[in-house]
Amino acid sequence: MRFLALYLILLVSANVARADDTVFKVGVTTRDFTPVEPYDWRGARTHVLRVMIWYPAAAEASEEPQWIGPPFVPYFSAGSAARDAAPAAGSKHPLVLLSHGAGGTAAGIAWLGTALAAHGFVAVAVNHPGNNALEDFTVEGFSLWWLRAVDLSVVLDAMLADKTFGSLIDPARIGAAGHSAGGYTVIAAAGGITDPAQLEAFCRSPIADALCRPPPEASGMREKRLARLSSDPDFRQRYERAGQSYRDPRIRAALAMAPGLVPMFTEESLNAISLPIAIISGDADEIAPSASNAEALARQIPHATLKLVPHAGHYVFFGTCTMLGRMMVRTACRDPDGVDRDAVHAETIGLALDFFAASLR
């Protein structure tokens, strides 16, 4: 049944692509990019930007199922790809930068990365320092959210300079997509400017919602942030840089999936975003409610499009869970009754393919 579900995702995504779209074998590989120092590592132990890359592979590549979790008992599917395969020869490809949610990983967005690569895109996802599940979370990683946009810009620099991928990427066709805090990240990279005081005010107001109740992975981070702001001048100085613009003008289109932290964006900056923005969210999102996040973005960004998936929650944009994953990672693997995660993925893949094909011509 699992392989049938994966086949249906690929079949639907192929059908929603344009008639002249070539379907490629998918390659996957990793890189450790080292930015020019000094770099704000947000308290993380690892001082490299660790990325996963999905790309159109040579026709002779042999794809295999990819998984997330313990090697013999994985929790999530990561699609099907040929590890370290030779790239497909031919024309240059558009690039889509991918940003995971708070406490997630680059691999967690593989379901979208593999689909993009199968249809001619190079996709690269970065593990954001201090805010990914590969190592301990840090206060900075859960406070200095705007620096995630800097990570995307540095990864873009590195991809364009990479000996293998640089020559395969069309630098005039760059997009970005992200889930949850990753949705916030791509909007920041598109020109959204952050004012953390706005989120504090929202959470003290009568319209405060579930966004103001931090998920388990962020438990206690607010109190630690406030303590650091009062006792650590260096942290306070870095925190005060929130109001700068982190826009990367090379990014020409952005897709935000179940975006969070939206009340932090200034209305003026959202009104000034001129590039195409697509937004998709579940209308039953229990972490980043659509009214204060996805719908608010759609109202304030000119020409943004919004798709609300009926009854879907926040974690529907995670990878498809294995049986063990549904037992061990219940929060991330549980969808509301009647919601088919594979079908939502297929719908989102179709939206992404159409959106980026039209926006990155």
Overall spatial form? globular
Q: Kindly, what is the distance between the CA atoms of the first and last residues, rounded to a whole number of angstroms?
A: 37 Å
The total number of structural domains is: 1
- Biggest sheet overview: 10 strands, mixed
Order of SSEs: HEEEEEHEHEHHHHEHEHEHHH
**In the CATH classification, which architecture applies?**
3-Layer(aba) Sandwich
Mean residue pLDDT:
93
Total of DSSP H or I helical runs spanning 4+ residues? 12
CATH superfamily: Alpha/Beta hydrolase fold, catalytic domain
Estimated share of beta-strand residues: 15-25%
Class inferred from helices and paired strands: alpha/beta
In helices, the fraction of residues equals 25-40%
CATH topology (level 3) name: Rossmann fold
Beta strands, count: 10
Rg, rounded, reads 19 Å
Main-sheet strand order equals 3-4-1-2-6-5-7-8-9-10
- Low-confidence runs (pLDDT<50, min 5 residues)? 1-20
CATH class: Alpha Beta
Question: Can you give a write-up of this model?
Answer:
This protein has 361 residues and is an alpha/beta fold. The protein has a single domain (2-359), classed as Rossmann fold (3-Layer(aba) Sandwich). The protein contains twelve helices and ten strands. It has a ten-stranded mixed beta sheet, sandwiched between helices. Helix 2 (110-118) packs across helix 12 (341-359), helix 3 (147-161) packs across helix 4 (181-189) and helix 6 packs across helix 7 (233-239). The two termini are 37 Å apart. Mean pLDDT is 93; it is low at 1-20.
